[in-house]
Each structure stands twice: as C-alpha cells, then as structure tokens.
C-alpha cells in the first residue's frame, strides 16, 4: 500500500493533507523520515506520525437499538442521524445496513464493511427481517394468506415476496420479510387497508435484538461469531 493511502486510512486525513505531512518529513518509516508519498510500504514496516505509531483498524461491526427521531442516512439537514449516538473514531466511514424510518425503532446494524452489509441487505440473499408492528385497525387471519401470497405495493410492478405474519393480538403482529423495499412494512399493511402506528425491528437473520441489555439509543460491538453468523 502507498504511504499516503496508509496514512489516510489510519487517520482520516485527505490524500493532499497526508502528502503535505510526508513532504514536511513528519512521517517516519522504521524510524527514518520518508518524504515520498508514493512510497510502497511493506507489511512489516512501522509508520510513525508525530511520534505516534499508526495502525490500520480492521472492519468494524456494531449493533444499535435505534430510537425514534433519528435517521439512518449519514447526512440530514433536518434530523439527527444515528451516528450522533456513537462515540467512535472515523464515523464518516460507517454506514447502516439498510435503513429504518425516522419513527421506527429497533435492531440496526452499522459497519464500514460494504461487502458484509451488501450480503445482508441485498434482495438476492433474502435475509429475513422480523418487525413488530402495532396497527390502527384489528388484523384478521386473512392477512396471513395475503402476505404469504404477496401483495402489490402502490406504484410497484411486482408483488412482495412471501412474508410470514404472526398475529400476536388484534392490533399487534410480527411480520417477517425477505426483501427491503422502501417503507415496506408500512406499505404492506397499507395494501391491505390498515395503518402501522408503531414499528420496531426485532430480528435480522437469526440475530435477535436483546432490548434488556441494549436500551434505546445504545450500541455495542458485535462479536466475531455474530458478524460471521449474519453471512454464514
Ligand atoms: N418497513 C417500514 O415500513 N419501515 C421501516 O423502517 C422498516 C421497514
């Protein structure tokens, strides 16, 4: 890897900022100043900047219990993003795996590993996502068959894929879907003449959000085993 790229990846500096520091002889390779930004680093070489040894951090994986009132985009002029809830370096490198609406709560995955998030969110992989929905009108058993067969969402050409509905009580359901269309759960209930009043994601794949150990607004690092299980 080029020296200037390595510094950018470790520090978040731009290529030109890194280049400037290198040309000012502020960067040492194995204790010796190196003034060439294009220098190719060998894996065993040690790079220091301002007396600090730089190290690449590996990909990062987090689970958050998303509260309402936060958006999943990286930048929103009108709302707080979920990233303001995180105390991590290089927040600009992180993204959410899929999105939850501003008013949806629950399980949110956050990473800087694009391949991992693609595997979880791409429709091809059909990763199951389970939502608890509270409805304005009572839901009856006919909804189970309608969702299993697929419903047409307003403005779309293809019906939804088979989804599993469990009716917990007349106004509360668990819905498992295998794709991630825009506002999918709300639009599915709208398609059968109902309205979602509150929505909470409980599960992605086999991973269940433990709301007892992770309160709304909290997040934690996923273990290696958890990370692997999402794509296993
Ligand atoms: N479906 C929705 O309608 N909203 C969400 O936030 C997630 C799934």
CATH topology of the largest domain: Alpha-Beta Plaits
Q: Ranges with pLDDT <50 over ≥5 residues?
A: none
Major sheet size, sense and barrel closure = 9 strands, mixed
Number of domains: 3
Q: Say what oligomer this is.
A: single chain
Global outline? elongated
Q: Mean pLDDT score, rounded?
A: 94
Bound molecules: uracil
Task: Report the sheet-strand fraction.
Answer: 25-35%
The number of helical elements comes to: 6
Which structural class do the helices and strands define? alpha+beta
Number of strand elements: 15
Protein traits:
single chain, 232 residues, alpha+beta, Structural Genomics Hypothetical 15.5 Kd Protein In mrcA-pckA Intergenic Region, Chain A, Alpha-Beta Plaits, nine-stranded mixed β-sheet, four-stranded antiparallel β-sheet, 22% helix, 27% strand, binds uracil
Description:
It is elongated and about 75 Å long. Helix 1 (3-11) packs across helix 2. By secondary structure, the chain is of the alpha+beta class. 22% of the residues lie in helices and 27% in strands. It has six helices and 15 strands. A hairpin with an 8-residue loop joins strand 8 (95-96) and strand 9. It folds into three domains: 3-54, Roll (Structural Genomics Hypothetical 15.5 Kd Protein In mrcA-pckA Intergenic Region, Chain A), CATH 3.10.290.10; 60-116 and 213-222 and 228-232, Pseudouridine synthase I, catalytic domain, N-terminal subdomain (Alpha-Beta Plaits); 128-204, Alpha-Beta Plaits, CATH 3.30.70. The strands form three sheets. Strands 5, 8, 9, 10, 11, 12, 13, 14 and 15 form a nine-stranded mixed beta sheet that branches. It has a four-stranded antiparallel beta sheet with strand order 2-1-3-4. A two-stranded parallel sheet has the order 6-7. Uracil is lined by residues 100-101, 104, 183-186, 199.
